[in-house]
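User:
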Amino acid sequence: MRRIRCWRSALGGAAGIAASLAAPLAAATDVPKIDAAAERAAIGVYQDADQRLQDIGWTLARGNVGFCPRVVPSIGLQLQDMASYGAPAIARAALGLMGDFAVQTAARGSPAALSGAFARNREIVRLERFDPNQWPTTTPAMNWHRLVWAHDHIEAMLTEHGGIAIGFADGEEARVTPVEVCATRFELMGDGGKAVADGTRVVIGIDFPAFAYPEEDVFAALVAHELAHNFLEHDAWLDRNRRTRRHVRRTEREADRLMPWLLANAGYDPAAAVTFMTRWGSRHDAGILMIRDHDGWDERAEFIEGELPLVAERMASEGRADWRTHFAREIDPAKGLETAQAE
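Assistant: Predicted structure:
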């Protein structure tokens, strides 16, 4: 039976993923006659999906801040760079920008969103002392490097100075103070249906079926599964211990079982993890020819369901589901497998 596959690869930064939007923006070196409304709508579809991912990612990363292995200061802001599009001039014209940098998303409930200053597509000309529009581009289009630099620079300013002043093209400025969140960035891939956890990022393809699920907590279960891989440091563990079927299966089982703990701490229904696994697995099973480096979806749902009473007990007694203390590991984080059960 088919399982969720956590694809780990050296993907580019958020801007590289956003570059997939080149499809609706015909390649050009200058601005031809375009249907600006249609171009904005095409970009808007991507931004709507990205907003949903950022909102849920922020809620999970903020809700579990007391238990994750590493925290960082964040304001919940994600930028966009026109240089990352296939046709920067068309993207610039469609969004009405003079420069390249603008707001992509401000995660719901984050300092950026609560400030009211970071409306979608609002043009940005300064990040503290630097104008990111002046940074060089390595290619004329589909350049994701500057956006990585910009997000790294924001994080550095928040870490060193406890806040950042961001200047807009209309002459206004917003100074924002961060809060701590678990250290993972969330990125939307412009095509494909993969889900990726690489230790520092969660990347989900816009074609993943869960984007069609109307319930936020069910979609959040997918994000929680990938986030669990990062919290439990599976990528590094597999690098040390080899990516055998047995090892991968154990890490996947851990990520499944941690899903309801993460959901509960973020205010979501922990049972949504079972709903997600049942809905996704029952509709996207690839049959017995699939290499069995995951449990079957029905087995996975059962393992997840087994965690629900434990989560409920912790929530009732402590008000939070302390998975760092009470979650039973499948592996020994410092060595090999925690148990020696036959596979």
